[in-house]
Amino acid sequence: MVAAASVVVAVGTATGMVSALGEGRGVDEARPGVTESPTLDIRPPAPSPSPSVTTRSASPSATPKKKPSPTPSPTRTEADKQRPSSASVRLYRHPDSQVLDWVRENAGDPRHDVIESRIADQPAAVWFADYAPDSVTARVESVTAGAAAQGRVPVVVAYTIPGRDCGGASQGGAPDLDAYDAWIDRFAAGLGSGEVVVILEPDSIAQSECLSGGQRADRFASLARAGRVLKAANPKARVYYDAGHSGWHPAARQAELLRQAGAGSAASSDGVFSNVSNFHRTADEIAYDRRVLAALGGPAGLGAVIDTSRNGNGAPADGEWCDPDGRKLGRPPTLNTGEARIDGYLWVKLPGESDGCKGAPGTFTPSYAYDLASS
Q: E-assigned strands of 35-96?
């Protein structure tokens, strides 16, 4: 029995994504747009080794035949709620997010101080989940430039692969893989020259078995190309590929898929990410990611980053996926884990942004955030 996929539901399709450019703003004033982290569907275990997905298949236009592209020249517990250590302040907290908006507008709310200190003050990833090729360079650059000005490291999430979520609730992204390749070129152009962590396409590899063999090969060719383009554009960029999570594919199977997508090559990859928007305990993810990396092979320097935003109590035993009760914040974000081959604990999913049960999908829900932060 293998736990089913984390099926990401993009805010852009589920609830109407914040515009890349606010009304009346120019490109130089662009809100980076996708600070709302997409929601997650963690379904109960199923007998099939492949993820559970909706019955609607990916659009054929999302997977054109690809041409080869050239290669460019633990000592703390889960209950730990401490504020970031001196090592973790290197991560960047972008000034635009739903939780920060709430904190600014609700100073008198009795939940304010807990939400501010335990969630809003933490650095979190910035998502780029809408297909907006004309503005994406400026929007990414607004994040990386802001981080560089503070001497900190931003975390950005590229999430526009065509056929994402196998055509389910999170369908969207680029219209086809050629358009995606061009979008990645523009995304990469905004990365700047400083350190930046790129989470490349959550679920794109672990949830690829709904595609035909040819479609999967085409997607993986684009992902391998994306890693090369990102690292060629900024050699300090650290690019991580989708390893699913410890309750999904066996490590050897996930490593095989990752290898096909270029994650074992230093030209395109710095390693893998796991547990994005999920709830599995950090210790389980550390063990799983090490097994994946060992099976993947490749350079010894490949590592893993883990989403610890909501995993303080682990995944619910009953498999509940939608804003499950009894969850809590996990370890604070840091790039200094003290764990071999574990490069960072990150908050990729912003705590308090609902999966759709305690609030509208993708919206910040203060009652949910307070429950996570005060558990």
A: 39-42
Q: How far apart are CA 26 and CA 155, in angstroms?
A: 24
Kind of pairing, strands 126-128 and 155-158?
parallel
Q: Which amino acid is at 242?
A: D
8: nearest Cα among 206, 288, 140, 176: 206
Q: State whether residue 140 is helix, strand or coil.
A: helix
Alpha-carbon torsion angle 57, 58, 63, 64, nearest 10: 70
- Tens of pLDDT, residue by residue, the chain (375 residues): 333 444 343 333 332 333 232 323 333 333 344 446 665 443 333 322 222 222 222 232 333 334 443 333 333 333 333 333 434 449 999 999 999 999 999 999 999 999 999 999 999 999 999 999 999 999 999 999 999 999 999 999 999 999 997 866 567 899 999 999 999 999 999 999 999 999 999 999 999 989 999 999 999 999 999 999 999 999 999 999 999 999 999 999 999 999 999 999 999 999 999 999 999 999 999 999 999 999 999 999 999 999 999 999 999 999 888 899 999 999 999 999 999 999 999 999 999 999 889 998 889 999 999 999 998
SS3 146: helix
Tokens found for residue 150 = 């503070």
Contact status, residue 228 vs residue 185, Cβ threshold 8 Å: no
> How far apart are alpha carbons 91 and 331 in whole angstroms?
14
Residue from 63, 54, 62 nearest 214 by CA:
63
Instruction: Collect all residues with Cβ–Cβ distance below 8 Å to 300 and sequence separation of at least 6.
Output: none
Give the count of beta carbons closer than 10 Å to the beta carbon of residue 319: 15
**Would you state the structure tokens that stand for residue 174, as one six-digit string?**
């680029």
List, by residue number, the catalytic residues: 165, 203, 355
Question: Which residues, including other chains, have CB under 8 Å from residue 95's CB and lie 6 or more apart?
Answer: 146
CB of 59 within 8 A of CB of 307?
no
Q: Which residues pair with 7 in a beta bridge?
A: 41
Name the amino acid, one letter, at 227.
G
The structure tokens listed for 165 are 């979520």
What is the crossing angle of helices 251-260 and 282-296, to 10°? Answer: 50
